[in-house]
Design goal:
By secondary structure, the protein is α+β, with helices and mostly antiparallel strands. It has 2 domains: 74 residues, OB fold (Dihydrolipoamide Acetyltransferase, E2P) (Beta Barrel), CATH 2.40.50; 87 residues, no CATH class. The chain is built from 5 helices and 5 strands, in the order E-E-E-H-E-E-H-H-H-H.
Length: 169
């Protein structure tokens, strides 16, 4: 028996699937990263899913890797992040890293809260990589990939953190 649940999250990635569907990678507080298939019979929605959308969904939770989405409502497109190409680039880089590093179906409420805070603060920090650097440092500490917080936000340290997250040295 499958159970339907309402979840709230952020799209990390979107992939076209068949003619009128997408596979969405969603980061939610309740379930961590999940993958779900959503179908649309309206052409505008079929092309409309992209990373960095706040969504509310009704999903059928199952033991399978790919869940079914019964309904998906976009709640925000984070317009403040889209005002600056530099900010959007750094936020997109972090979002892509999360999509690759987070395990499926593993709730991470502390990390979800940290990511939500990062999305809220990223548009207000100059240069744009400052918020990304602070988020990435905390993320790597939570994941056990970094020993201690340095609190630095210079570009060299940010690039070093990106390499650590990608599995480099």
């Amino acid at each position: 028996m499958h159970n339907t649940q309402a979840i709230e999250g952020v799209t990390l990635a979107s992939f076209a699937f068949q003619e009128n569907a997408h596979i969405l990678s969603i980061f939610s507080k309740e379930h961590g990263r999940i993958k779900c298939v959503t179908k649309s019979y309206k052409k505008a929605l079929t092309r409309g899913y992209c990373p960095l959308l706040g969504v509310e969904m009704q999903v059928i939770v199952s033991e399978k890797e790919l869940w079914k989405c019964k309904e998906c409502i976009v709640t925000t497109s984070y317009p403040s992040l889209r005002r600056s190409l530099s900010t959007l680039r750094h936020v997109a880089e972090i979002t892509d890293l999360l999509n690759r590093l987070l395990p499926l179906h593993h709730a991470l409420p502390e990390l979800y809260s940290l990511y939500s805070q990062f999305l809220a603060e990223a548009a207000n920090q100059e240069p744009a990589y400052h918020a990304a650097c602070l988020f990435l440092e905390k993320f790597l500490i939570i994941e056990g990939m970094l020993d201690k917080e340095r609190g630095s936000t210079d570009l060299g340290y940010y690039n070093q953190l990106i390499q650590i997250a990608k599995g480099g040295t």
